UniProtKB/TrEMBL annotation:
SUPFAM superfamilies: P-loop containing nucleoside triphosphate hydrolases. This is Multidrug ABC transporter ATP-binding protein. The keyword Transit peptide does not apply. Gene3D superfamilies: P-loop containing nucleotide triphosphate hydrolases (3.40.50.300). Residues 9-237 form the ABC transporter domain. Keywords: ATP-binding, Nucleotide-binding, Transport. It holds the Pfam family ABC_tran. InterPro entries: AAA+_ATPase, ABC_transporter-like_ATP-bd, ABC_Transporter_VariousFunc, P-loop_NTPase. Coiled coil: none annotated. CDD domains: ABC_DR_subfamily_A (cd03230). The lineage of its organism: Bacteria, Pseudomonadati, Myxococcota, Myxococcia, Myxococcales. GO terms for molecular function: ATP binding.
């Protein structure tokens, strides 16, 4: 059952400033086992910066991130062992084969019995028979699948995905959605960022809408609809998103920047 147990991800007062630009301002939310959170917002809203902060790639200016009970800033290795970050553009090594990529990930994370797990993942993601292929021999979609296989190999408790369906054909998209549901059902927490709002509506238990780096809505789709009154009744996530992000913004207090 989703939402049971201690939070896998806890984000408190997350902020990131680049010079005079406040890219992320005071985000606070949590995810429990099995929950899938959709992170949506207009271009330039701060989604990519938020994801990179969650993944430990970008150091926040303010706030705290805990993954699996470990503070990402104070215990980054322990926190990242519980994490998989899958960016929109696969990051692969040109001279490592598909199998060698899995072997490398297994060594980094200390995955026992990785060959059996790797074979199962390659079969699940339709890469069986490609074990000896180099990235240059793979299609864009196959590269994406290899990146996903590497991310899933160590059974992460938190999976952060940025546009995970890029480059996949319709059948692969259907199977990828089933893979994400299976990992949620097994107890992983997922953060899914995508401009494909029907995908977010289909897969996510909760939605976090940000604009200008700030949270403008958070909760289940029904909870967010309720805030819109009669206009929200039966509205799709796309309609809700447009209504929220195009409405005149009320001034919000700015979170003080505390350099770290």
């Amino acid at each position: 059952m989703s939402g049971a147990g201690d939070p896998i991800l806890e984000v408190t007062g997350l902020g990131k400033v680049y010079g005079d630009l406040r890219a992320v301002d005071g985000l606070t939310f949590a995810l429990r086992p099995g929950e899938v959170l959709g992170l949506v917002g207009p271009n330039g809203a701060g989604k990519t910066t938020t994801l990179r902060c969650l993944a430990g790639i970008v150091r926040p200016t303010a706030g705290r991130i805990r993954i699996g009970g470990h503070d990402l800033a104070a215990a980054p290795v322990e926190a990242k062992r519980a994490l998989a970050f899958l960016p929109d553009e696969p990051r692969l090594f040109d001279y490592l084969t598909v199998k060698e990529h899995l072997n490398l990930v297994a060594r980094l994370y200390g995955v026992r019995g990785w060959e059996e797990k790797g074979r199962a993942l390659l079969a699940e993601l339709e890469l069986a028979g490609k074990e000896g292929a180099l990235p240059g021999e793979l299609s864009r979609g196959m590269k994406q699948k290899l990146s996903i296989a590497c991310g899933f190999l160590h059974d992460p408790r938190l999976i952060v995905l940025d546009e995970p369906l890029t480059g996949l054909d319709p059948l692969a998209i259907r199977k990828m959605k089933a893979s994400l549901r299976a990992r949620s059902a097994a107890g992983a927490a997922l953060v899914l960022s995508s401009h494909l709002l029907p995908l977010v509506e289909e897969l996510c238990h909760k939605v976090l809408v940000i604009s200008g780096g700030r949270m403008v809505a958070h909760g289940s789709l029904d909870e967010i609809r309720a805030t819109l009154g009669a206009a929200g009744a039966g509205a799709s996530l796309e309609d809700v998103f447009v209504s929220i992000t195009t409405a005149p913004a009320e001034p919000l207090p700015t979170t003080p920047v505390r350099p770290r």
